C-alpha cells in the first residue's frame, strides 16, 4: 500500500514539475498587478463588441470601444481603431499605457518615435505589430494611396501606469475629442475636447522655454479644429524613401529567425540596465514585427489555416510592455482545438470573415455561443475555454494578450491535455469503454491547434509546427 502511494505521488510530481519550471521561466507571478482588485471578471455573458464612440478628423476616423464595458474592465484594456487617409498624418502624441498596434488594411504607414537627432522611422506595413511603450511620443503618416486601418490595444493596468485604469492620450499637437460619460455610438453622444499640451501654458513662459517669440508661441497655441489626424497634401517632406540596405535591414528585423534572435540577445539587457531616460532605453529597441506571412507561421495546417505567435522571445521589447499577440487564419469550416490561456486574458479582434465562437467559464457554462464577424471584438478571460469554427468565408483574427509570454493549453491534438492522459483516466473520467476512450484520446492524431473541415481531414496531410 505504501508502495502504491509513493507511485501516485511520483506521477503527480512528474506532471507538476514542468508546469512549475515553465511558470518560473516566464516570471508568471510578476506579470499583472491590478487585475484582481475588483469583481470585473465575474462574467455571466460575453458578446462581440463594436466600437461605441466615433469622431472624425480631417484625415481620418477614430473609433473607440467602450472602456467601461465589463468585458474590457475584466481584461483592463482599452481598444481604439483608427483609419488614416492617404497623405494623412496622425499628430504627435503619447499615452499613459503601453500599447500594441496591428495594421490590417492597406496603406503604407510610417511611424517615428520622437527624440532628438537619433530619430528612427519605421515603415508600418499590413500585418505589422508595432509596440509603443508608455510615455513615448510618436506619430504616423500614410504615404500610400489607400487608407491605413490599425487596431490599437492598450494595457491600462500596466505597472508603468501610475494614474488610474483609464487610457489617457496626451497630444503634442491637434485636438482629441473625448466622449461624455453618457455618450453612445451613433447618436446622442456628448463630447468634450482635449487640447494639446502647449495650448494652456502661459504664452510668455512657453515662448521663453522654447526659445521663440511670443507671437510664434501664440501661433502654436491656437485652437486647431482638424482633430488628431490632418492632411499633408503636398506630402511629408521630412520622410525620405529608404535605401536598399535599409529595406534589407527591415526585412531581417521582421523575419530574422534564429539569426535575428542572436542579434537581439543584448537588446533587452540594454533596456533593463539603462539609466539615462526614455531615449536611451528605447532608442535601440526593435519595435516592429510582421505576423502576417503564413510561410513563417508557428503552426501551418494545409487547407485548415495557420497561427503565428509574437512573444518577448521574438520581440524583446514585449518583455517590458508585458504584452504579446497572435495572428490566426482559419479556412472554410476549419476548427480550432478547445484551449485556454494559462497566464493571460485574450482579446480577439476579427479582421476578416465570420466564425462561431464558444467560450465556457469555470462553472462549465457557455458564456458565449454565437457568431462574431469582421470588425467585432471579443474578450476571453484567463482560463476560460474557447473554441472557434470558421464559416464558409473563413475567419481571420488578431489576438492581444496580457502577458509577454502568453501560454495556451490545448485540449485536443498533439501535445494536448487529452493526449497526455492515460486511456484509463479518460475512460473513468467520462465513464467510457476503453476503446471509446482511446478514440477520444487520439481522435485528432497528430493535429496541432487547428484542424481542417471534417469531411476532408483524412486526405489533407499532416500539419507543420515550428517549436
From TrEMBL:
**Alphabetized InterPro entries for the sequence:** 11S_seedstore_pln (IPR006044), Cupin_1 (IPR006045), RmlC-like_jellyroll (IPR014710), RmlC_Cupin_sf (IPR011051), Seed_Storage-Functional (IPR050253)
Which residue intervals define the domain Cupin type-1 in the entry?
A: 44-218, 289-438
Similarity-based family:
Belongs to the 11S seed storage protein (globulins) family.
Tell me the gene name: GLUA1
The upper taxonomy is:
Eukaryota, Viridiplantae, Streptophyta, Embryophyta, Tracheophyta
What does the record note on quaternary structure?
Hexamer; each subunit is composed of an acidic and a basic chain derived from a single precursor and linked by a disulfide bond.
Superkingdom to which the source organism belongs: Eukaryota
Span of the signal peptide = 1-23
This chain's protein is named: Glutelin type-A 1
Q: Which SMART domains does its entry note?
A: Cupin_1
Please provide the record's keywords in A-Z order.
Disulfide bond, Seed storage protein, Signal, Storage protein
Listed under GO biological process in this entry are: seed development
Organism (species): Apostasia shenzhenica
Gene Ontology molecular function: nutrient reservoir activity
Amino acid at each position: 500500500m505504501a508502495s502504491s502511494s509513493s507511485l501516485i505521488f511520483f506521477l503527480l510530481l512528474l506532471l507538476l514539475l514542468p508546469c512549475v519550471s515553465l511558470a518560473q521561466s516566464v516570471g508568471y507571478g510578476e506579470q499583472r498587478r491590478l487585475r484582481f482588485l475588483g469583481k470585473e471578471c465575474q462574467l455571466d455573458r460575453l458578446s462581440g463588441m463594436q466600437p461605441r464612440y466615433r469622431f472624425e478628423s480631417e484625415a481620418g476616423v477614430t473609433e473607440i470601444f467602450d472602456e467601461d464595458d465589463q468585458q474590457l474592465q475584466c481584461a483592463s484594456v482599452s481598444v481604439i481603431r483608427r483609419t488614416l487617409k492617404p497623405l494623412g498624418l496622425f499628430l504627435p502624441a503619447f499615452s499613459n499605457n503601453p500599447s500594441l498596434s496591428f495594421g490590417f488594411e492597406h496603406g503604407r504607414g510610417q511611424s517615428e518615435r520622437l527624440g532628438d537627432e537619433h530619430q528612427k522611422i519605421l515603415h508600418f506595413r499590413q500585418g505589422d505589430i508595432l509596440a509603443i511603450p508608455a510615455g513615448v511620443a510618436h506619430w504616423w503618416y500614410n504615404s500610400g494611396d489607400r487608407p491605413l486601418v490599425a487596431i490599437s490595444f492598450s494595457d491600462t493596468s500596466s505597472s508603468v501606469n501610475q494614474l488610474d485604469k483609464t487610457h489617457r492620450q496626451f497630444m503634442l499637437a491637434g485636438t482629441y475629442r473625448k466622449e461624455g460619460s453618457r455618450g453612445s455610438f451613433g447618436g446622442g453622444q456628448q463630447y468634450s475636447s482635449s487640447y494639446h499640451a502647449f495650448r494652456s501654458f502661459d504664452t510668455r513662459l512657453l515662448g521663453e522655454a522654447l526659445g521663440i517669440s511670443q507671437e510664434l508661441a501664440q501661433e502654436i497655441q491656437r485652437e486647431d479644429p482638424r482633430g488628431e489626424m490632418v492632411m499633408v497634401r503636398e506630402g511629408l517632406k521630412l520622410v525620405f524613401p529608404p535605401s536598399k540596405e535599409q529595406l534589407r535591414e527591415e526585412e531581417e528585423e521582421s523575419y530574422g529567425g534564429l539569426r535575428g534572435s542572436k542579434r537581439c540577445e543584448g537588446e533587452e539587457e540594454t533596456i533593463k540596465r539603462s539609466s539615462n531616460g526614455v531615449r536611451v532605453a528605447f532608442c535601440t529597441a526593435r519595435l516592429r514585427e510582421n505576423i502576417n506571412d503564413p510561410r513563417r507561421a508557428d503552426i501551418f495546417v494545409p487547407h485548415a489555416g495557420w497561427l503565428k505567435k509574437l512573444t518577448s522571445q521574438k520581440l524583446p521589447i514585449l518583455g517590458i510592455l508585458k504584452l504579446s499577440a497572435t495572428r490566426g487564419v482559419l479556412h472554410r469550416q476549419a476548427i480550432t482545438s478547445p484551449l485556454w490561456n494559462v497566464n493571460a486574458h485574450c482579446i480577439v479582434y476579427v479582421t476578416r470573415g465570420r466564425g462561431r465562437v464558444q467560450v465556457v467559464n469555470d462553472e462549465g457554462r457557455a458564456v458565449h455561443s454565437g457568431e462574431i464577424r469582421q470588425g467585432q471584438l471579443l474578450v476571453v478571460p484567463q482560463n476560460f475555454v474557447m473554441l472557434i469554427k470558421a464559416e464558409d468565408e473563413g475567419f481571420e483574427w488578431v489576438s492581444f494578450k496580457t502577458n509577454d509570454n502568453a501560454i495556451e493549453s490545448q485540449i485536443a491534438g498533439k501535445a494536448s491535455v487529452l493526449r497526455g492522459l492515460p486511456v484509463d483516466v479518460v475512460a473513468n473520467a467520462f465513464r467510457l469503454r476503453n476503446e471509446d476512450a482511446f478514440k477520444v484520446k487520439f481522435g485528432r492524431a497528430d493535429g496541432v491547434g487547428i484542424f481542417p473541415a471534417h469531411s476532408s481531414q483524412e486526405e489533407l496531410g499532416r500539419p507543420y509546427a515550428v517549436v
